[in-house]
Amino acid sequence: MANIIIKNQHYPIKAILFDKDGTITELGDFWTEPTIGFMNRIVNDFPNKTYHSKEKEEIFLHAGIKGDELLPDSLATAGSMKDFANFLADYSIMDGKELYQEALAYFCKYIEQYPERIKPLGDLAYLFERLKTANLLIGLVTNDSLQTTHLILEKLEIKDFFSFVATPNEFPEKPSRVSLDAFCEQFQCKPEEVVYVGDSLGDMAYGQHTLASIAVMNHPSSQAALIASSQVQIGSVMDLLSLIECD
User: Fold this and answer.
1) I need a labelling partner for 193 at 20 to 30 A (CA). Which of 10, 34, 66, 77 fits?
2) What would the pLDDT profile of 194-208 be if each residue is shown by its tens digit?
3) What number of other Cβ atoms are within 10 A of residue 122's Cβ?
4) Is 247 exposed, middle or buried, given 0-12, 13-18 or 19+ CB atoms closer than 10 A?
5) Where does residue 73 fall: left (phi above 0), alpha (psi -120 to 50 degrees), or beta otherwise?
6) What is the DSSP letter of 121?
7) 3-state SS class at 1
8) Residues 37-40: contacts with CB under 8 Å, at least 24 apart
9) In the chain, where the domains are located
10) Rounded-to-integer distance, Cα 52 and Cα 151, Å
C-alpha cells in the first residue's frame, strides 16, 4: 500500500480522487468562450426584453462572469450544468430541463470543434501511470456533466486511467459524500484511505469526507480561503508525486 505525507506524517491510502476543471485541466481558457457565448445567446434571445448593458453585466456577474473572466468558486466554475441551466431559465422562455439539453449540446459541440483548446495541467499520463504503479486507484468526481466529462477525458486520452467517474448525472453534486461512499463500497476501502484533490472551496468541503483535502493553488484570489479549508496545498497537480511513498 502507498503512503501519503501530510504535515510530516505518513498515512496509508488506497485511492486518490480528483476534480477535473481547474485541477487536472485548465478552467478559464477553455470554458470562458463557450460559457459567455451560451449566456449571450440565451439572454439576447429573451422575447420582449432588451437588457441594458448594466443589467446584462449584473446577470453575468451573478453567474460568475466578470468581463471576459470566469470567477473562482462561482456558478460558472464550480456549479453543475444543471445549476447553470436553472439560473438561465429566469432569462429564457425555456425551462431548466430544456436549457440543460441546449447547454449540453452547445458545450459538446464546442469540445468536438476545438479539442486542441483542452489544456491539461501537466503530463497527466505520466502522473497517472506513476500513481497506478504505486497500486493506487484513481477516480474523478466532478460537477461537470457526464457527456462533457467523458468527452474531455477521451480527447486527452486519459479516460482509461480512471476506475471511477462520478458526475451529477448519477450522484448528488459535491460536496455531498454520496459519490465517495459509492466509490468506497465498490472498491472495498474506507474514506480515510482516500484523498481528494481539487481547486475550489467546494472541492475542499468534499475532501473533508476523506482523509484529506489537497488544494491545487491555481487561483491567486482564493488562496487564503483554500489554505484555511485544506490539509495540504500544492502548486500543481504534478506536485502530488512528491507526497506519495510506496512500501
Assistant:
1) 77
2) 999 999 999 999 999
3) 15
4) exposed
5) left
6) S
7) coil
8) 37/106, 38/102, 38/103, 38/106, 38/107, 39/63, 39/65, 39/88
9) 2-26+119-246, 28-116
10) 37
Give me 111's grid cell: 469540445
pTM given for the model: 0.90
Read off the DSSP letter of residue 159.
Answer: G
To 10 degrees, the CA torsion angle through 76, 27, 155, 16? -100
**Which pLDDT value is given to residue 175?**
94
Residue with cell 486519459: 158
The sign of the torsion formed by the CA atoms of 65, 66, 68, 73 equals negative
CATH number for the 2-26+119-246 domain, one of 3.20.20.70, 3.90.226.10, 3.40.50.1000, 3.90.550.10?
A: 3.40.50.1000
**Residue matched to cell numbers 477525458:** 153
C-alpha to C-alpha distance for 56 and 49, rounded to whole angstroms: 11
